[in-house]
Amino acid sequence: MKTKILSAVITICIAITSFSQNSDADFIAQKIRIRYIPHPNTAPLEVIRIPVSQVLGSGYIFGTTSENGMNVCARFLKHLLRPVGRGADDGQPLLQQIIASTLRIMGDSVVVDIYKDDQVLNAYAKTQYLSDPNYGDDHIWPAAWRDDTGPAASGSSHTAHIQFGENFAGGYGITEMRRTFVHEMMHTQDFSDVRAHIWGRFRYGADGDHYGFELLPNAADAFGEGIANSMTYIYSRISRNETIRWFANNDYCVIEMPPTDALITSNHLPPRSEWVYTQVSSTDPPGAGLVSSNPTFRDYRVYRLAEMPSRFLMQNEQIIAMIGAEYALKVGMNHYFQALRSGNGRLFRVSTSAHARWFEALSNEAIPNGITMNDIRTTSRASMPYLYALALADYFTYYRSTTLNEFKAMFENSLSEDWANVYWTVGKDITRRAAPITLSRGRPPVLNVQQNIDAIAAALGVSTP
After folding, report:
1. Ranges 128-132, 196-200, 267-271, 411-415: which has the least confidence
2. 223, 265 Cβ separation under 8 angstroms
3. Going by C-beta distance under 8 Å and a sequence separation of 6 or more, which residues neighbour residue 148?
4. φ and ψ at 69, to 5 degrees?
5. CA nearest 305: which of 398, 391, 436, 229?
6. CA torsion sign, 104 to 105 to 108 to 109?
């Protein structure tokens, strides 16, 4: 799901790099099926298939004499599918590269539903098209999902879905539409379990929303949103840098307070003691947190990032996204996508720690040819790029882990003993010497993140392709 943005608090951001593949637009065209819903509020049901040839042609996409009020969606489809060029309606190379590379993770097809949602969605639209009479938004909010990962699915169908509408595309603009689509496409290729069997409809918390600067109660959703954001950060340098500034300045994060005991009991949710806020507020510092003046956050409390224990910082989607993006930019895009592919193989319809499996895959993917796990366990060497992902996790949690057990807790105590022990006994000191963070009264100075990341990569012998 697209992360909701509140500019009054923090603007969620996104990022940019290049990863080249031949025939990206052709590959995308083979893998997506575009459908147009022109009047969601009124009968009869109508879903119009838009062939790729219609996007590539010289005529209109959503109508015969005009784009029928779908101008931004039309331009977006041209950027996604047309041959690359310099014109306003030509294909956009970075967009096509990242989308095609993401689709190649599993190669599964994606149905893209595009709504003309200029009017507020009524009960008919929510019931007949969205299959959710309680759908909480007035217009289509960008979202993506798979048919095969939920507990009720057979696992035999591997189609995924993305939905968005002209209201979002026109309201936020073409640039944000491209960034959002990159985010949503990663959701379609992600096999990780969102733990709906534990959290149900409260998987993002009691309010059903998630924010980029929130420490989510459900670690599984923090992971899913984090790797989706990592694609956007790879795509858009501007967004990545905005989030890096948020981290560098030890900015604010929010934590949702648990709902009432009655609601927890009736919905079979984890007990109050297991919610992030209960655990954070029970120690002083950081204590009960600050009350936000923004009424949207009346059920949240506000903290500085560096106040948080490391294991809870790993329940923030932007922290995860920065780790993924910086790994891809240093170790290489091919390695990052391969790690996601191999990690998926251990996640399909299994409720495990996606965090731990992801870090293991990132670490394994960075092992140089000829080096075995036994070599890594028994021999320290000058070049250890396989520790880079874990070093990023340590750095982007302000080195708040002071013991091996605290470090393991960042990965839900599921990271392999080999990787946890090697990093803690060898990589930790190298990383922290290369880019020290000194806390004064619990707060770090303003950090030069790029300089720090470069230093960590150099100390571990990471070679950028």
Report:
1. 196-200
2. no
3. 154, 155, 156, 157, 158, 159, 348, 349
4. 75, 10
5. 398
6. negative
Using CA atoms, how far apart are residues 401 and 187, in angstroms rounded to an integer?
30
Q: Which two tokens stand for residue 428?
A: 């930790």
Q: What is residue 10's predicted lDDT score, i.e. its pLDDT?
A: 31
Q: Quote the strand ranges of 325-464, DSSP E.
A: none
Query: If you search the block for the tokens 């809870």, which residue do you land on?
Result: 312
Whole-angstrom distance, CA of residue 61 vs CA of residue 72 = 11
Beta-ladder partners of 256:
300
- Closest-CA residue to 422 (of 459, 375, 463): 375
The secondary element (H helix, E strand) that includes residue 112 is strand 110-115
Give the distance, in angstroms, between the CA of residue 240 and the centroid of all CA atoms in the same chain: 12
DSSP 303-344: EEGGGS-HHHHTTBHHHHHHHHHHHHHHH-HHHHHHHHHHHH
Both tokens assigned to 111: 């149905």
pLDDT per residue as tens digits for the range 171-230: 999 999 999 999 999 999 998 888 878 888 888 888 888 899 999 999 989 999 999 999
How far apart CA 37 and CA 165 sit, in angstroms, is 9
Q: Which long-range contacts (CB under 8 A, 24 or more apart) does 58-65 make?
A: 62/36, 62/38, 62/116
User: What would the pLDDT profile of 308-359 be if each residue is shown by its tens digit?
Assistant: 999 999 999 999 999 999 999 999 999 999 999 988 877 776 678 889 999 9
Contacts of 371 (CB under 8 A, 6+ apart): 386
Q: 215 pairs with which residues across the strands?
A: 316
For the chain, first and last CA: distance in Å? 32
Contact between residue 194 and residue 235 where contact means Cβ atoms under 8 Å apart: no
- Per DSSP, the residues of 221-251 read HHHHHHHHHHHHHHH-HHHHHHHHHHHHTT-
13 pLDDT band (50/70/90 cuts)?
A: very low
Neighbours of 334 (CB within 10 A): 14
Distance of alpha carbon 16 from alpha carbon 237, whole angstroms: 4
pLDDT at 8 over 70: no
Centre a 10 Å sphere on the Cβ of residue 85 and count the other Cβ atoms it contains: 11
Task: Tell me the sheet residues that pair with 254.
Answer: 214, 302
Give how far Cα 296 sits from Cα of 8, 211, 299, Å: 10, 11, 8
Using the predicted structure, report yes or no on whether residue 150 has a pLDDT greater than 60.
no
Pairing of strands 110-115, 32-37: parallel
